[in-house]
Amino acid sequence: MNDTRRWDRCISHRGVETEQFLAHYLSNQDVRVLLIAGIGFDPRSTRICKLLAPILGSRLKGLFLREERPEPHRELVEHSQRNYEEMVKLVPNSSEEKIDIFAPDGAVIGGRNAVRAVHKKSMTDFTDVIIDFSAISIGVGFPITRLLFDRVCAGAASYNLHLLVTDEPFTDDLVFPTACDIVDTIHGFKAGFGLFDNTRAAKLWLPQLIRGRNAVLDKIHSYCRPHDVCPVLPFPASRPRLADELIEEYSSEFESTWGVDTRNLIYADEKKPLDLYRTLLRIDDARRPVFAGTGGSLIILSPVGSKVLAIGALMAALDRDFPIAHVESIAYSVDFKTIDTDRLQSGEVVHVWLYGDAYAA
Questions:
Q1: Which pTM does this prediction carry?
Q2: 347 in the same domain as 319
Q3: Which residues pair with 159 in a beta bridge?
Q4: Are the beta carbons of 126 and 30 closer than 8 angstroms?
Q5: What is the CATH number of the domain that holds 317?
Q6: pLDDT tens digit sequence for 132-158
Q7: Which one, out of 72, 203, 212, 306, has a CA that is 20 to 30 A from the CA of 54?
Q8: Structural domain tally of the chain?
């Protein structure tokens, strides 16, 4: 049984604790930070810049990624540009990289392009690298994290690696993605999926449920063809009945397409990425000895819900090399009129220290 857990004792913070930690840690004049963030229409795009810039001043540099999708709506482009202009004012020592998410033939290439853009950036001048997931898509943020994490683990670079995300669930409900038709594993997270050695493996699919993504998850289910499905539900959550609402919304899939036994539902605290991370590893630890003699166990993740829980899935995938099946979004629509800017300001920032001095021992 593989019961080792890299982040069983993990440095993480939320809300006021995050702000206090960053104010103390980053006040050290020897700390030099590269912030990798998304240039997005999401009103949360500028939050981390606003948090870091007053503390770091000239010791903060930015690498801002602009995800390019075909024929974006004019309103989204305008909001993205306004956010970018504010980010540059806060972090004047910054550069911009445009990331094409789709090739001309429709192939999903965003992850590869993002890795290429970050790979050419020298990290030698920085003590810390921070990835802000607030406005970066899963298909771009996960490959970047894998690249930077693998670098430091292999000794090819030396920096502390942090993940930050602005958590405000009400805003998530006002962003409506349109999925493309292609299902694939995220770049860097194919793991053993599709390999001949795993043809006899017992495949367990763990989709993270979210409102209105039934069709997308059905596509992923058909792609993975798992033997069992254990949906991940947020509980506790920002809305107390959210888990019950999701069970009701996906009742058709549970009963027919996916064949979900109610005993196989997974509950993870919506506010704590480490809760899902530890749960996924416990499941892996329990399955490995059971299926060791019959082809092994293969766990497949699909984090399509909140970014906070997605970070927990990311950590589990980095720790145990789980494959991640994903459908990229080709377009977005946003209800900007309903977005409450006051609520956005009260959204909590979540911090996970992924690698570095804190784990030197």
A1: 0.96
A2: no
A3: none
A4: no
A5: 3.40.50
A6: 999 999 999 999 999 999 999 999 999
A7: 306
A8: 2
